[in-house]
Specification:
Distance between the termini: 39 Å
Number of strands: 2
Helix content: 55-70%
Shape: elongated
Strand content: 5-15%
Number of helices: 7
Strand order of the largest sheet: 1-2
Order of helices and strands: HEEHHHHHH
């Protein structure tokens, strides 16, 4: 199982694998599920970290602004949930596409930091 598959399969099992603010690998979720995944995560730590670093480039700063604007629009303010959504968007193109689609519900000026026009929308 490659690093992308480990991150995706762990997510399906309720475990979110992210790079912490210090660059350390973190696994969050149900304790039992995290315990099940820790041996595989540890065995593949270097590859998972490299995958997550590359995945950060899947969304642009403008994409993050639009997604955060949508989360604010639906009154989601929990920092943990916001971080989880952004990390999911960084790791999974389908999640990124879904949340960018939802961001289209937000008036353009709020999605773009006050600009009147939106690229592609």
């Amino acid at each position: 199982m490659n690093s992308a598959m480990i991150v995706q399969q762990a997510a399906l099992d309720g475990v979110t694998i992210v790079l912490g603010s210090t660059g350390a690998l973190k696994a969050n979720g149900d304790e039992v599920a995290v315990s099940r995944w820790l041996p595989k995560i540890r065995a593949n730590k270097r590859d998972i970290m490299a995958f997550l670093r590359r995945a950060v480039n899947l969304i642009t700063p403008e994409d993050e602004t639009a997604i955060c604007a949508w989360l604010a629009h639906i009154e989601e303010s929990d920092p943990g949930i916001i971080s989880e959504v952004l990390n999911k968007c960084r790791a999974e193109p389908k999640a990124r596409d879904y949340f960018l689609w939802r961001a289209c519900e937000v008036p353009c000026s709020k999605r773009t930091g006050g600009r009147d026009t939106c690229p592609g929308g």
